[in-house]
Design brief:
single chain, mainly alpha, 81% helix
Amino acid sequence: MTRAHREKLQLCDALEKIADALPNVDRLKCLGIANAIVPLLRNIHQYEETIIFPAYEAATGGSNANLASTRRLRAEHVEDECFAGEVTEILLAIGHGETVENAEAVGFMLRGFFESMRRHIAFEREHVLPAIGIIDQGAI
């Protein structure tokens, strides 16, 4: 799980660098991230939903509040994957040489995506992982 968080945070950092550099971005970097983002998230989300969340629910006794938390986290996964698809389209277009018409809007989109992922990770580090006995050194 800590590796998954590290990979997602590296993705967030890369997207932040692109957002900061707009409209003058490394097109190859955009293509690389565009091709990695959706598969990375799908794999991590599948792991969380099949291993981590059931362990969390079992460790916390399946209380209503904790079940609501995992339902929300699962819903965030769906939203993140949809948003990742949109981010992928933009990054592919930029990577293939399309002009960034509105750098501010693209930057805002990228920031909205990676800040949402960072909040999701923070919640998991603060609530989910400690409940199942995982110490995430990145959270310290």
